[in-house]
Structure formats: C-alpha cells, structure tokens
Design goal:
10 strands, Amino acid/amide ABC transporter ATP-binding protein 1 (HAAT family), 239 residues, ABC_transporter-like_ATP-bd, BCA_ABC_TP_C, Rossmann fold, 6-stranded mixed β-sheet, ATP binding, alpha/beta
Length: 239
C-alpha cells in the first residue's frame, strides 16, 4: 500500500521548469532512492515532499490526506520527518539534550521528553553516548544523533538528504545497518544519495531523474542496466 504518492507534479520557478509532471510513490516500510545528475529535479521532488517547495500543479498525498501546500511544521505533525546535509546539532549541548529538544515538541513534561529521547538514541545505537557533548563526536556519530532527533516524534516517513556524505566506510556500514533496522520497525524512507554502493545496499526501489522528469524506475540492479540511465547518469559511476 502506498504511504506517499506524487501525481503529475510540476514545479516552475518563473521560466524554469524544475519538475515536469513527476509521479512517484513510496510504499509502507519501503526505502526509495532518488538519484540523478545535479539539477535533474531530485532535490526539488524531495523538497516538495518535505513541504519546503510548493507545487505549481499536481497533487501530493500522504496516506489518505492531500498535503501539497502544507508547511514543514504541519507535515511533521502528520508524520513526515527529515534530515539535512548539514547536521546542525547544538554542539555545546549533550547528545541527549539535542534529541530531547526535538522530543519536547510532542511531550509535555521534561521527563517524558528525555525518556523518549533516550529511546530514540537507543534505536540508532547511540544510547551509550547520551551524556557526551555533541560537538565532540565524530561526524558519523553526529549524523546518527541527527537521525535520532528526526525519529523522536515517531514519524511514518523519514527523508534523508545525502546522509552518507563525508562518512568513512565503517561509518557508512553502521548507518546503513541502522536505517535498515528502522525500516524493519515500520519506518518508510526516501533518500537522496550519490554513492551507488549505498543505493545498492539500502534501497528497495530507485527513481532516476533527468531534466525535471522521471527517466527510469526500478530496483538498483534494474536501473543500472537501463541504457538511458547509463548514458545520462551512471556512466560517471559504473564502468
């Protein structure tokens, strides 16, 4: 069953056509990858889902609700969370305090917020670091804290924007393991990612963008064999 569906979505910035009648969907407990060259439209589609870009035409539905035009704050209450390329932690605060700040939006008492924050840290394998100062952590650990902060409100859909950028192979392995565990727990994910090995290991399906349109859709193995995809994008990454 589809959790999220974009139907014939077009986005124009003045005379620039950023998205041209794009349709895609995300199923329950699915990890969908968005890939394509810079300027292809994947980030615009991602930001439409996140509520930071408005559609010109077309519809976006989350579950039974139509959500195009709604603010990120409203979408967060509906069950859509996101991370950013820049981690954005409060570096002088502890790991637990960083996540508890986000938890306080949903929980009235400080004790409840801290309890839920600790649970979210445990879900990403960072509970043992709860009392460390966030700015002292390596980048890979900071990104796991950012994921914990995003899931502390119990979203149904998590949007990840180049989460693996700047990480070591070991940190990527750990993050992929965490994300797969979250998916098994009921979360759906949409990921923008340039590292094709991560796309191979993490995603169930991939949507390839080119010039504001969907060029191809399928499993990672399927899209890597698509001649049009190889010509426009994967030639840079696949021999």
């Amino acid at each position: 069953m589809s959790l999220l569906r974009l139907q014939e979505v077009t986005v124009r910035y003045g005379g620039l056509l950023a998205l041209d009648k794009v349709s895609l969907h995300v199923d329950e407990q699915e990890i969908l990858g968005l890939i394509g060259p810079n300027g292809a439209g994947k980030s615009t589609a991602f930001n439409v889902i996140a509520g930071t870009v408005r559609t010109t035409t077309g519809t976006v539905r989350f579950g039974e609700r139509r959500i195009d035009g709604r603010s990120p704050a409203v979408l967060a209450r509906e069950g859509i969370a996101r991370t950013f390329q820049h981690v954005g932690l409060f570096e002088s605060m502890t790991v637990l305090e960083n996540v508890a700040v986000a938890a306080a939006v949903r929980h009235r008492s400080r004790r409840q917020a801290r309890r839920r924050a600790f649970e979210a840290l445990a879900e990403v394998g960072m509970a043992d670091d709860a009392q460390r100062i966030a700015g002292s952590l390596p980048l890979g650990h900071q990104k796991l804290v950012a994921i914990a902060r995003s899931i502390v409100g119990d979203p149904r859909l998590l949007l990840l924007d180049e989460m693996m950028s700047g990480l070591s192979d070991e940190e990527i392995d750990r993050t992929v393991t965490v994300l797969n565990r979250l998916r098994r727990g009921g979360l759906s994910l949409v990921v923008i990612e340039h590292i094709m090995e991560v796309i191979d290991r993490l995603t169930d399906r991939v949507v390839v963008f080119s010039s504001g349109r969907v060029l191809a859709e399928g499993t990672s193995a399927e899209i890597q064999q698509d001649p049009a995809v190889r010509a426009t994008y994967l030639g840079e990454h696949v021999a």
